[in-house]
Amino acid sequence: MLLLDEPVHVNATSGVALVCITEQSTFYIPGVGVPAWVGLEYMGQTAALIGGFQQQAGDLDDHTGFLLGSRQFSSTLPMFSAGTTLRIQCEQSALVGDTLANFDAQIYLHNGSDDAPIATAILSVFRQPATPPNNAEPTL
Question: Is 61 helix (H, G, I), strand (E, B) or coil?
Answer without folding.
Answer: coil
